[in-house]
Design brief:
Layout lengths: L11 E2 L2 E2 L1 H15 L10 E2 L12 E2 L1 H11 L21 H11 L11 H9 L14 H10 L15 H15 L3 H14 L10 H9 L6 E5 L6 E2 L35 E4 L3 H9 L1 H4 L4 H4 L6 E2 L6 H9 L1 H5 L4 E7 L15 E7 L14 E6 L9 H4 L1 H12 L2 E5 L4 E5 L1 E8 L1 H7 L19 E2 L6 E2 L37 H11 L4 H4 L3 H6 L24 E3 L1 H16 L10 H10 L23 H12 L15 E2 L4 E2 L4 H15 L6 H17 L4 E2 H19 L9 H4 L1 H11 L8 H4 L1
Parallel strand pairs: 9-14, 14-17
Antiparallel strand pairs: 1-2, 3-4, 5-6, 5-7, 7-11, 8-20, 9-10, 10-11, 12-13, 15-16, 18-19
Helix pairs in contact: 1-2, 20-23, 23-24, 24-25, 25-27
Length: 758
């Protein structure tokens, strides 16, 4: 077979091992056994492509034969440098380059143990200039030049590690074990001393960062007003005081302080530019082709498996044909949520990361952690609330630039340069963050679809807002529930229809008519709030600055994860009659007497007690349910240990995570309550469970979503005939809009908080 090792990646033909591959394995083992200095006794490093081997583990030669026949060789291992072959062997570089170029489409792009192979996986055949059709632009070439460090030995003769591999491992160890910079510097100095002379080991943390920074993924530290009024950025970068509240930019140190340091800002945020990260997706042969999947995969009419199959995506293409003409243009989603980084210590500190993710990728890559790009970290300790727009200014400015001008990018799969443009499709957030990003959700106008047309009202005794009897208007005009004067609110019929769904242009026209402004121009939004008292709009959010934002069919997603969790908890706590969490209490019964006609639930004047409701369980039934849940077993990884959430003494559940509620709502609820609740109550809850199960399917059909959109008002009306008005808060109302969003925007796994919160 000589120096031609194409056989290494031509393992199968017609589903069978080729004779050339079997002979090649014997040749490889014979060669490796001739170099005992690379062996561990009678064992060799296994070069198979299984994730546990890949030249890491020593095994016997029979195991190597079995592994290679089953998994094949690790990618790009044409030079057997970890089995005794010198880097300068009789297989010339030109021949290897050609072999890599021919086999790159056949080799599985799995992670290798050496950083040289990692670089090959990232750059593909384009790493070699002699197979390129068009040279990369200067930005891409800078990256490829940086990756050449993977071929530089840490010291002359080192075969196992390169400069880049050592640096990457060191930075990973620092992060994993929380090493200080001083500790890192000392380790670097020690390694430099013990290694042979003329080594390329970095001297300290500073030089290590300088080396890695050449990868071109920078971070910008931007000073902020401590009250969140403005950023000291762009034309305001030289200001020393906030132009809105006049708060000083820098801290003032007392004289004589031993830690005296000038120009320390009161507050700063971190911004990670997006452009270079998107360019990296096309610089790697592993992902460049996948970024075109949305346009090249087979579509089935009426079936939605990916965002590109949806009405929203097609509407955007139709509205912006020049953008849609280049299939490599990128479409993004944006997510933000607050978290407490010091929650375990009890310190109150609310930090807000902003994450964007590309939707061009296929379902098996889209929404994966490695393609979620952290772009902004909004500092604490306070919640930014309506001033979140202030911190989004750098991101929105970059998105505008990427839409209007674009950036020259090198496509490693097509071997040419092109101008990539970027569009933001929508945002993903829980309901409180929804209010911060878009709609001023509060009180009676909390629903972003109903707004001022909501029929919500304030409970007389409970004092909270109720969306009870707010769903009959979504029914068909001839539905009998509309004329019912007894089962819903007293003596009330419903003739009006559901509020119309406004387009982006109509909403923007409303906002401009009200004269609302973005907080980035005002510093505070008190004037905005009084203008939008009855309309639901508190301000003009910064997203309207994007030229295409008003043309998007769906701009902000209702988060199915949190809605489902809140609905489940309301149902379960009420059915289990959990103290202080149930919606069925004394005030609720008094409100029920005022708004509904249900004499069987009114207080018994003789005893002064309230009768048991049909939708609550007695103590014996609760004990049966808790015992059943405690003994329930699930497949590994399907759900967490639900037995730990059972309190047998108080007969309640506690500490359930969002995914636990998701599994209980969709899979267990119909079974758990079937024998314990009356048929009409169990049936309504089962229909709600089936609704969420169909809504969260990975494959949706448009006609099925339209059917769900007609069924969910009926389901909610059935619940209104059972539960008291206090049960129906805004979370019990929002499911009426979820089927519509799924109909126009597709499967919810691309539009909910699970992947981001994990």
């Amino acid at each position: 077979m000589g120096s031609d090792r194409r056989w290494m990646y031509a393992r199968l033909k017609d589903g069978l091992l080729t004779s050339e591959f079997i002979e090649g394995i014997e040749q490889f083992i014979t060669f490796a056994k001739q170099h005992p200095e690379w062996m561990d006794g009678d064992k060799l490093k296994c070069p198979c492509n299984h994730r546990k081997c890949q030249n890491r583990n020593y095994v016997d030669e029979n195991t190597i034969r079995l592994h290679l026949m089953k998994h094949g060789f690790v990618p790009y291992y044409y030079k057997w440098i970890l089995h005794g072959e010198p880097r300068t062997s009789n297989i010339d570089s030109q021949n290897i380059n050609v072999m890599i170029a021919e086999s790159v489409q056949e080799v599985d792009n799995s992670t290798s143990n050496t950083y040289e192979q990692m670089v090959m996986d990232a750059a593909g055949p384009n790493f070699f200039q002699d197979v390129m059709e068009e040279p990369p632009n200067p930005s891409a070439q800078k990256l490829y030049d940086m990756l050449q460090a993977a071929n530089q030995e840490v010291w002359p003769g080192c075969e196992s590690h390169s400069q880049l591999s050592v640096v990457a491992r060191m930075l990973n160890i620092k992060a994993e074990h929380h090493l200080s910079e001083r500790c890192f510097d000392d380790i670097c100095q020690l390694m430099k001393e013990v290694l042979p002379d003329e080594n390329l080991m970095t001297e300290n943390f500073y030089s290590t960062k300088k080396l890695v920074q050449a990868l071109g993924l920078p971070v910008e530290k931007i000073h902020c007003c401590t009250n969140g009024c403005m950023l000291y950025w762009a034309e305001d970068s030289e200001l020393m005081n906030c132009k809105f509240c006049d708060h000083p930019r820098f801290k003032r140190h007392s004289r004589g302080s031993s830690n005296f340091q000038t120009n320390v800002p009161h507050k700063k945020m971190y911004y990670f530019p997006l452009t270079q990260r998107l360019q990296r997706l096309y610089a790697s042969n592993a992902t460049a082709k996948e970024m075109r999947w949305h346009a090249e995969h087979d579509h089935e009419d009426g079936v939605m498996r990916h965002c590109s199959d949806t009405t929203t995506w097609k509407h955007f293409n139709k509205t912006h044909p020049s953008f849609a003409a280049e299939v490599r243009n990128v479409r993004l989603g944006l997510c933000t949520d607050g978290f407490q980084p010091f929650g375990q210590s009890g310190q109150q500190y609310s930090s807000w990361p902003v994450i964007v993710t590309p939707y061009n990728l296929p379902p098996w890559l889209c929404m994966k952690e490695e393609y979620m790009f952290l772009t902004v970290i909004v500092p604490g300790p306070r919640n930014p609330k309506d001033k979140l727009d202030v911190y989004l200014q750098p991101l929105i400015a970059e998105l505008k630039q990427l839409w209007e001008v674009g950036v020259e990018t090198y496509d490693a799969s097509k071997k040419n340069n092109f101008n990539v443009r970027v569009a933001l499709l929508w945002t993903i957030s829980d309901f409180p963050a929804y209010s911060m990003l878009s709609f001023g959700a509060h009180s009676k106008i909390a629903c972003p679809y109903c707004r001022g047309d909501s029929d919500a009202f304030t409970l007389t005794k409970g004092g909270k807002q109720s969306w009870f009897d707010n769903h009959r208007k979504f029914l068909l005009a001839n539905h009998p529930f509309r004329r019912n004067k007894i089962a819903f609110r007293k003596n009330k019929t419903v003739t009006k229809s559901a509020p119309p769904i406004l387009s982006g242009e109509e909403i923007l026209e409303q906002i401009e008519h009200l004269g609302l402004m973005c907080v980035t121009y005002m510093g505070a939004d008190e004037n905005n709030s009084c203008k939008a008292k009855n309309t639901g709009w508190k301000r003009r959010t910064i997203f309207w600055d994007l030229p295409y934002w008003s043309t998007n069919m769906l701009r902000h997603n209702l988060d199915v994860m949190h809605i489902e969790k809140n609905v489940f908890e309301n149902i379960f706590n009420t059915v289990m009659n959990v103290e202080e969490k149930t919606k069925d209490n004394a005030k609720s019964r008094e409100d029920l007497k005022e708004f509904c006609h249900r004499p069987e639930l009114e207080r018994d004047m003789a005893t002064g007690k309230y009768p048991k409701a049909c939708y609550t369980l007695d103590k014996q039934s609760k004990a049966v349910l808790c015992e059943w849940l405690k003994n329930l077993r699930f497949p590994d990884g399907y759900v967490s240990n639900m037995g730990r959430c059972i309190d047998m003494r108080k007969l309640k559940l506690f500490g359930m995570k969002s995914h636990d509620c998701h599994v209980f709502m969709q899979r267990l609820l119909p079974i758990a309550f079937r024998e314990l609740l009356p048929k009409n109550v169990w049936q309504a809850l089962t229909e709600l469970s089936n609704f969420f199960r169909e809504l969260t399917s990975t494959t949706l059909r448009e006609e099925a979503m339209l059917q769900l959109n007609e069924e969910i008002p009926i389901i909610l009306c059935k619940l209104e005939r059972i539960f008291p008005p206090s049960f129906f808060d805004s979370m019990e109302h929002l499911p009426v809009h979820l089927a519509y969003e799924a109909w126009i925007a597709g499967p919810v796994q691309y539009r909910w908080m699970y992947p981001f919160e994990r």
